[in-house]
Write a structure and sequence with these properties.
The structure is a single chain. The chain is α/β, with parallel strands linked by helices. It has one domain (about 5-190): Rossmann fold, CATH 3.40.50.1820. The protein is built from 6 helices and 6 strands; from the N terminus they run βαβααβαββαβα. The protein has helices spanning about 15-25, 45-55, 55-70, 85-95, 135-145, 175-190; strands at about 5, 30, 80, 100-105, 120-125, 150-155.
Length: about 190
Amino acid sequence: MARILLLHSIYGLRPAVHGAADRFRAAGHDVHVPDLFDGRVAETVEEGGEIRAEIGRDELLRRAIAAAAPLTEPGGLVYAGFSLGAAVAQNLAFADERAGGLLLMHGTSDLPADASTEMPVQLHVADPDTFEPVDWLNAWYLRMRKAGADVEVFRYRGAGHLFTDPDLPDHDSEAAERAWAIALDFVASL
């Protein structure tokens, strides 16, 4: 059983995030889903961007750190997230030397120049994805490998950015089911 911190996308804490948490719980994992937007949910990426800008990057990160703090213990927390939440999860995981793994759905973040880890990392991303261009992803992968991460990247041809969210136009049920099967196996292996 893994202990997972699952962070929502720029849309806020939507039903799809709770659905993802339920998938992990059904597989026997302990999942925590903080609401970094304090109950606010966006209908568009632009609206979500406004909420994020209003909260501010530092405050958003502080909220995520506060949510993770009581969950970290020997054995390692698995950090996971969707798009914006994936970027935040990556930042938290690299700051936690005991992190047990990192599951990124639809998003990444830059790595510090001195990043170093041996944690397992898995990324699921649309191909192509306007938010995660191929050149960026290739450079990200190389930086992750240089940092020592055991990283796997799964690209889903023709899927939209947030293809696992059934309530968004990006949804691709076939790609989503493939991604969930792989992600569940990944978390089970940690």
